[in-house]
Amino acid sequence: MADGLPYRSPKAWIEHPMYGFGNWPTPENFGAHDIAPHTSRPNPFSHWVNIIGKSAEGLMLADNLSNLDELLEMRSCTIVSNRQDACSTKTLLSCGTGILPVPKRLIENGARSQLKLLEKKYDCKNNY
Amino acid sequence: MTAKTITDTALERILAIKWEPDDSRVNSHIALLREYLRRAALWAKALDCTDEWPFFDVAAHICPLEVADETKVKVLKTHFTQTPFYVAGMIEKTCEWFLHWDRVKNLPKVSDFTLPEPYEPLIIMYERGGIFSMEHGFFDFAVGSFPRGKWQQYDEKIAGDWVNPQIEALLSDIKSGCIGMI
Questions:
Q1: B138-178 pLDDT, tens per residue?
Q2: Cα B25 off chain centre by
Q3: By CA distance, what is B164's nearest residue in A?
Q4: Which of A13, B23, B27, B47 might form a disulfide with B142, Cβ 3.0–4.6 angstroms?
Q5: pLDDT tens, residue by residue, A99-111
C-alpha cells in the first residue's frame, strides 16, 4: 500500500462460485481501478460498498473537486482519485474517463505515480 | 399477429427501461451477460462470423433486407438522445439489433437454426438495471470485472456446466410472456 495501488489487485483473480473467473476485489484486495469514482453513476462511489465494504452515503465528489482531499482522507490510503488515471480513455463504452483533471495539489498531497516510483527505484531519470 | 406488432412490443420494452443502474441486482447482471456471450458464440459459429463476436447484428446476417421499420428505429434513436451518457455505444447498438431481430425471428429461415434468442439476456439485464462497460478486454461491474475471453470458451460450455436456475427462470418468464414478473 505504501508504494501505491496496482491497477487491479493480483490477489483478486479468482474463480468466483457465482461470477466465474475474473478479478473480484474484496476489502482486503482491491486496485485503483476498483475504487476510482464512476462519474457516470448518480453516486460515483456507490460501488465502494460492494468492493471495500464502505457505504457511499455522504461521499460525493464536488463538481469543482473542492472536497477531494477530504475524500482521500476518508479512505486513508493512497488512491488514484481520478478514473482517468486508472482507466484507458479508449473504451467502447465510457466509464467516466476524461472528465476531471487531476489538480496539482492532489499529486503533491498523496497520489502516487508508478513512474516516480520507478525513477526512485532505478534512478532511470536519464536512462531513456 | 403481424411482424410489425411484434417489433412494436420490442420497442416498447426498450422505451420502458429507466436506465438507472441497480447494483443490488448485479449477480443477475453478470450471469445474464455471460449467458448472452454464450448465445452470441452459438450464433456466431452458426453464421460463420466468429470474428464479430461478441456483439453483432444477428438478423443482418440472416435476412439483411428485413430490417425493423425505419420509424421505429428513429423513435429508438430519439429515446437514446434523452438517456444518460453511459447508455451509449454498445448498449444502444444491441437495442437496435434487438428490434431487427424481433422483426425476423419468426421467419422460417431464422427459426430453422433452433438456437436461443440472442439478445434476450441483454435486454433483461437492461430491464433489471444492468449497465456494463468494457475496457481493456474486460467487462466491468460494480463488484469487479471479468475478461471477455474468446468465443470458443463460451461455445464449449455444456448445459450442465452452465445452468443457473435463477437466470433460466428469468428467461423462461419472458418466453411465456410473464414480463411483469421480473
A1: 998 888 999 999 999 988 765 555 556 667 677 766 555 44
A2: 17
A3: A18
A4: B23
A5: 333 333 333 344 4
Nearest residue of chain B to residue A45 (CA atoms): B142
B132 touches chain A (CB under 8 A): yes
B contacts of A8 (beta carbons < 8 Å): 145
Judged by phi (left if over 0) then psi (alpha if -120 to 50, else beta), residue A77 lies in beta
Average confidence (pLDDT) over B74-88: 87
Residue contact A50–B145, C-beta within 8 A: no
Longest dimension (CA), chain A: 49
Query: How many angstroms separate the CA atoms of B22 and B130, rounded?
Result: 6
Q: What's the burial of B71, exposed, middle or buried (CB within 10 Å: 0-12/13-18/19+)?
A: exposed
Of A12, A20, A41, the CB nearest to B34: A20
Q: What is the pLDDT of residues A21-59, one digit of tens each?
A: 999 999 889 998 888 877 667 777 888 888 877 776 767
Sign of CA dihedral B111, B150, A6, B85: negative
Query: Which residues of chain B are within 8 Å of residue A96 when distances are taken between CB atoms?
Result: 86
- The residue among A22 and A2 whose pLDDT is bigger is A22
Q: Beta-carbon neighbour count of residue B153 at 10 Å?
A: 14
Query: pTM for the full model?
Result: 0.73
How close B145 comes to chain A (CA, Å)?
5
Contact B126, B91 (CB under 8 A): yes
A45 close contact with B: CB closer than 8 A: no
Q: Which three cell numbers stand for residue A15?
A: 474463480
